[in-house]
Amino acid sequence: MKFAKYPVLLFIIFIHVHAFGQDSEQEPGGFNFTITNEVTGSSVKDQYLSGTCWSFSGMGLVEAEMIRMGKEPVDISEMYVVRMCYEEKAMNYVRMHGECTFSEGGAIDDVIKVYKKYGLMPEKLYQGLNYGEEKHNHNELEAVLKEYLDGVIKNKNGRLSTAWFEGYKGILDAYLGKVPEKFTFQGKEYTPKTFAQERVGMNPDEYLFFTSFTHHPYYTEFVVEIPDNWSWERYMNVTIDDMTTIIDNAIKNGYAVVWGTDVTETTLVKTNDGIAVVPEEDFEVLSKIERLNWDSMTDKERISLIHSYSEPLPEKQITPLMRQQAFDNYKTTDDHGMLITGIAEDQYGKEYYYVKNSWGKGYNDYDGYMYVSKAYAQYKTILWGVHKNGVPKDILKKCGY
């Protein structure tokens, strides 16, 4: 998952509608949401022009877990995790002779892996903004790192030098900052590992990560075949019914859920960049000619055609076959990581997930959150993760945990 804030405008349809629940004098229609269950999380962050949603969503889970455990909340550095993953990615890329993914993207469990191996740092002590920008913009950084590694791999010496990795870390130092061996926070000295162990206080082994596809047996683990699973991590495969059960159970019992999903299929409606649904009828307001021209239309032309999805309408019934076909046909891709922190109902009683995004508070009418229908989650979820106590015991047993 690597979606940056503004490039998303190239892919997602934005339909402006009235969002109800705040002002009773607004005209009838629209969406009226009531949150029925909510987990307390940290503030909405802004990844800006960096493909690091996986780190922001994973860190959102860490910060929500600190709150759940009664810890004093701390804004923790996403860019420290990004830095350490870049080091790991470089080792993989060089060992694979460049025949694997190297990019800004990552998986939703990468934060937990860095937590366990390297530790964490406070945001104020590692902001990752050493390159003259006030917000994260990794376009140049990613290009420079990959060019450097490709040069290392293609060198004519027939072997690697002893300096290549130090040179690589020097680039990361220049852009993101050097990683201190020790630092002082709130009057106490830490290393990244002791900060994670003593100040954050999570047990990384207690977090489970799931997927749901039919091309591997249920209740077994497999390496999910997505480009951003750069470390070839294995995830537990469960049914889509168990997916919904796990997420619902977690939220209702106070556990946030980190969520990796697809957000780029243009036939799915994102009203006002804050609501995600799967309409029962594809393109129901379009003529045959308009449907044929869909791919060549601009976003504005598409918006003008799908004007009818401005209030709750019936949605598709999602099946495992639909999920699998969308994944196999590149309709469901590993685009974006977010954090599910609640369950809501619309004015007709249909349930949605209340989801914290990482594009800042001002990008939509919901202060940086989204309302995602359960049908959308069943259709487009790729990965999700949660503390083991948020998973029903019967599902844990089926998974062999």
Write the layout of secondary structure elements.
Blueprint: E1 14-15, E2 19-20, E3 31-32, E4 34-38, H1 53-68, H2 78-95, H3 110-117, H4 139-154, H5 164-176, E5 183-185, E6 188-190, H6 192-200, E7 207-211, E8 221-223, E9 234-237, H7 240-252, E10 257-261, E11 269-271, E12 275-277, H8 288-292, H9 299-305, H10 320-328, E13 336-345, E14 351-356, E15 369-373, H11 374-380, E16 381-387, H12 393-399
Parallel strand pairs: 1-11, 2-3, 7-9, 12-15
Antiparallel strand pairs: 4-13, 5-6, 7-16, 8-9, 10-13, 10-16, 11-12, 13-14, 14-15
Helix pairs in contact: 2-3, 2-5, 4-5
Question: Which characteristics define this entry?
Answer:
401 residues, twelve-stranded mixed β-sheet, 12 helices, 16 strands, Cathepsin B, Chain A, 17% strand, two-stranded parallel sheet, alpha+beta
Apparent shape: globular
Let me know the largest β-sheet.
12 strands, mixed
CATH class: Alpha Beta
- Low-pLDDT segments: 6-27
CATH superfamily: Cysteine proteinases
How far from one another are the termini?
Answer: 27 Å
Tally the structural domains: 1
How many helices? The count is: 12
Mean pLDDT: 89
Number of strands: 16
Radius of gyration: 22 Å
Q: How large is the share of residues in beta strands?
A: 15-25%
Structure classification: alpha+beta
- SSE pattern: EEEEHHHHHEEHEEEHEEEHHHEEEHEH
Provide the helix percentage. 25-40%
How does CATH name the architecture? Alpha-Beta Complex
Describe what this molecule looks like in 3D.
The longest helix is centred in the N-terminal third of the chain and has 18 residues, at 78-95. Strands 1, 4, 7, 8, 9, 10, 11, 12, 13, 14, 15 and 16 form a twelve-stranded mixed beta sheet that branches. The chain has a two-stranded parallel ribbon with strand order 2-3. A two-stranded antiparallel sheet has the order 5-6. Strand 11 and strand 12 (275-277) form a beta hairpin. It has helices at residues 53-68, 78-95, 110-117, 139-154, 164-176, 192-200, 240-252, 288-292, 299-305, 320-328, 374-380, 393-399; strands at residues 14-15, 19-20, 31-32, 34-38, 183-185, 188-190, 207-211, 221-223, 234-237, 257-261, 269-271, 275-277, 336-345, 351-356, 369-373, 381-387. The radius of gyration is 22 Å and the shape is globular. By secondary structure, it is of the alpha+beta class. Helix 2 (78-95) crosses helix 3 and helix 2 packs antiparallel against helix 5. The chain contains twelve helices and 16 strands. It has a single domain (7-399), classed as Cysteine proteinases (Cathepsin B, Chain A, Alpha-Beta Complex).
